[in-house]
Design a protein that fits this description.
- Helices cover about 30% and strands about 35% of the residues.
- By secondary structure, the chain is α+β, with helices and mostly antiparallel strands.
- The protein has two domains: about 110 residues, Probable inorganic polyphosphate/atp-NAD kinase, domain 1 (Rossmann fold, 3-Layer(aba) Sandwich), CATH 3.40.50.10330; about 150 residues, Tumour Suppressor Smad4, CATH 2.60.200.40.
- It is built from eight helices and 18 strands.
């Protein structure tokens, strides 16, 4: 029989700093009298399998101890199950931790394992790829790819350094987007498909996204050349993407995405390479997630 709470730990998350934090996390859990067990991932995809096994074994909660990629993988193993997902953020970007109110607050995240409130949220899916936060196409995928080479810094700073390195050389592709009752084609920097608001370590790319509305929020950032990219990205960093003239915003429960050249995409920071058009859809009310007491405030 599985313990009521299972901590799925990604030792590679946070540039390897997760294991350094694990003793503190365990001490906090012990102090709350939690009955739990710890399992570690060894390779990509392990968090999905470990979460699924924990759920099948009767676990009440699976806690993803890592970054957005770990959260996303664990969520994929819990879709349409009765087991709740919790987040203990120890990764690089930790964007989904912002959505559930535990960003930068490990003691609160651990307390949520005992006292949290289960909330049912939507999940995004592109074929076999699941995401709870955002899926980024174009520049966002390239940033995720290149950011893997940054070793000495983490969080928003690591993403900013990568962005600055890519800004002068990135060539904007043409995107073709099709919702159920709308269609758009344009050359641009990126497309972000959001279930939640933040991506890339704090960039608010999908400002109107709602985890429970049964819709995807799609942000298209337009054809900014090298000279205009830094001012535009500064606006995104300041969380004012809505004020950019060459941005477009769409909503749909399903969107087909085609790109004029092969490109990287990220799904909650997990990297993929695509050559063909693909479809992204929302799975309404597909996942139970533990939120801290009193959060969200609505």
């Amino acid at each position: 029989m599985t313990a009521p709470v299972v901590l799925v730990v990604n030792p590679a998350a946070g540039r390897g700093r997760t294991l350094l934090r694990l003793p503190r996390i365990r001490a906090l859990a012990d102090g709350l009298g939690l009955e739990y067990e710890v399992v570690q991932t060894a390779r990509p995809g392990d968090a999905t399998d470990l979460a699924r096994r924990a759920s099948e074994g009767g676990a009440r909660v699976v806690a993803a101890v890592g970054g957005d990629g770990t959260v996303s993988e664990a969520a994929a193993g819990l879709v349409h199950s009765r087991t709740a997902l919790a987040i203990v953020p120890t990764g690089t970007g930790n964007d989904f931790a912002r959505a559930v109110g535990v960003f930068g607050r490990i003691p609160l995240a651990v307390r949520t394992l005992a006292e949290g409130r289960p909330v049912t949220i939507d999940v995004g899916r592109a074929g076999h790829i699941y995401f709870v936060n955002t899926l980024g196409v174009g520049f966002g995928g390239e940033v995720t790819h290149e950011n893997q080479r940054v070793k000495r810094v983490r969080g928003l700073l690591s993403y900013l350094l990568t962005v600055l390195r890519l800004v002068p050389t990135y060539q904007n592709p043409t995107f073709h987007l099709q919702g159920r009752d709308w269609e758009f084609r344009g050359k641009g920097v990126l497309v972000e498909v959001g279930n939640a608001k933040f991506a890339g370590g704090g960039f608010k790319l999908c400002p109107s996204a709602d985890l429970q509305d049964g819709l995807l929020d799609i942000t298209f950032v337009g054809d900014y050349g090298m000279a205009r990219r830094l001012p535009a990205l500064s606006m995104v960093l300041m969380r004012q993407v809505e004020r950019l003239e060459e941005c477009r915003f769409f909503r749909s429960d399903l969107v087909r995405v085609a790109v004029s050249r092969p490109t990287y995409i990220h799904a909650d920071g997990n990297l993929h390479h695509v050559r063909e058009p693909f479809t992204v859809e929302i799975l309404p009310a597909a996942l139970r997630v533990l939120f801290p007491p009193g959060f969200p405030r609505k």
